[in-house]
Design brief:
- The structure is a homodimer of 225-residue chains.
- Chain A has 225 residues and is an all-alpha fold.
- Chain A has a single domain, classed as Tetracycline Repressor, domain 2 (Orthogonal Bundle).
- Chain A is 61% helix and 0% strand.
- In chain A, helix 1 (22-38) crosses helix 6 (121-131) and helix 9 runs antiparallel to helix 10 (207-223).
- The longest helix of chain A is centred in the middle third of the chain and has 23 residues, at 66-88.
- Chain A is globular and about 60 Å long.
- Chain A starts with 21 loop residues before the first helix and ends with a helix.
- At the A-B interface, helix 7, helix 8, helix 9 and helix 10 of A face helix 7, helix 8, helix 9 and helix 10 of B.
Chain lengths: 225, 225
DNA sequence: TCGTTATGATAGCTTTACTATTATTTTTGA
DNA sequence: TCAAAAATAATAGTAAAGCTATCATAACGA
């Protein structure tokens, strides 16, 4: 493939499109690494500016504040996952198989994707595990939601819910089950690593496979007629 | 009942026991209201001190920082819920009934409990919905976990998991299902209110009942042999 | 080449998140 | 009941966070 792929995101997510310039791409790239390294609470635009050899003021021209940057990153991630699901389920008719592919994609460990250079999908997945809930657990959630910044996540949630409805049209809670499992998929990995008594997954080489089994179990059992 | 009940919490949760003094109780009481009012991010000890007519320095003698105070509040809540479950399931043998009572208690709207004056359980439940994940989604989770500050939550999770195991000893993921549902129980309420496309629950008078139905459905379906 | 746009350099402001010191109450227990 | 101890209040101060503003310069496009 010669043409480059690009995830198109809602412009409300940024002040200036970070994909449109060198500095913008650097901001995204390095912020992923820095947030992973020191955690979102300790992360500041000042520290990031030092890291990329720029200034605070320059970063503020791309993102209103660090929370918006986080929302951008997480949004990019979910859009990427949905693109992968669309791609991998193409030409597949059986809804159970489609759902299974989707579960695989939300539970497996992502590898860095050459189609999107400059973004480390594996590092980004770590941010989703550790920080993603902070995008919406904020007092101004309604305000930013109106701007459409959560569209990517909602869309993914509905895609998965639609497979569930295909499998069992009588199931009353497809969206809820979908969002619960999207959340659980990273929550259980977090628990397995940090609060193991909250999970049956055993941290180790096959923790992702256990997670796939767990999420599959509750989804397919819940959908049984 | 004449003797007062008191939830005994791990002393690692505080510097000085807030239940032991007037000021301490005021700190807890008013912090619940203030966090609900302005959100945890905007909440500061300075603002709280103004609210209770005291000083920042005095509050710092009770809690190391605002995060620790949040952990304390959430921990109190889960211990309270477990006390309620223990109480309500007393003398009941049937594990399905016990589990159902537990689900009811984690999904129903709490009313202020006269046994614990000075703490508004209903306001506190709102904090659990909006802020509880922030207790563990922090870079120093391993460090504070070693101090045992999450014991209350783990204990509750295991209690519920034990009912699941009684119902179906072959079920492989009782703890995971338990933590997933504890999280989902408040997450779905949050979604219903703020991000309705992520949930099938319809915000309104009976949203708690819908939530009970939802959580019951996935739990009991998942446990089916 | 001129004007626009992006970036960098620098400064400055308010608030947060503390810590320290000293004075004043309040408690308690001998 | 009084003195010592403990808790609180009052005050001050510091480094960093979370911005905003201004101006100079570089690059870029028409």
């Amino acid at each position: 493939m010669i043409a480059k792929l690009q995830i198109q995101l809602n412009p409300a997510l940024y002040l200036r499109d970070p994909q449109s310039s060198d500095l913008g791409q650097k901001i995204v790239q390095e912020s992923i690494l820095l947030i992973n390294k020191i955690g979102f609470e300790s992360f500041t635009f000042k520290k990031l500016s030092v890291e990329i050899g720029s200034t605070e003021a320059s970063i503020y021209r791309y993102f209103e504040n660090k929370h918006r940057l986080l929302v951008y990153l997480i949004s990019w991630y979910w859009s990427y996952v949905e693109y992968r699901i669309t791609f991998e389920t193409h030409n597949i008719a059986d809804p159970e198989e489609k759902l299974s592919i989707a579960i695989r994609l939300i539970t497996e460990e992502l590898k860095d994707d050459d189609n999107f250079p400059g973004i480390s999908e594996s590092e980004l997945q770590q941010i989703v595990i550790n920080e993603s809930d902070k995008t919406y657990l904020t007092k101004n959630v309604d305000e930013i939601n109106k701007e459409g910044v959560f569209r990517g996540y909602k869309s993914l949630c509905e895609t998965i819910a639609s497979y569930m409805t295909e499998i069992n049209p009588d199931f009353e809670f497809p969206r809820s089950l979908s969002s619960t499992c999207l959340e659980a998929a990273h929550q259980q990995l977090f628990f397995a690593e940090h609060l193991p008594r909250l999970s049956d997954l055993k941290n180790g080489a096959d923790v992702r496979e256990q997670n796939f089994q767990y999420v599959s179990t509750i989804i397919f059992n819940s959908l049984k007629k």
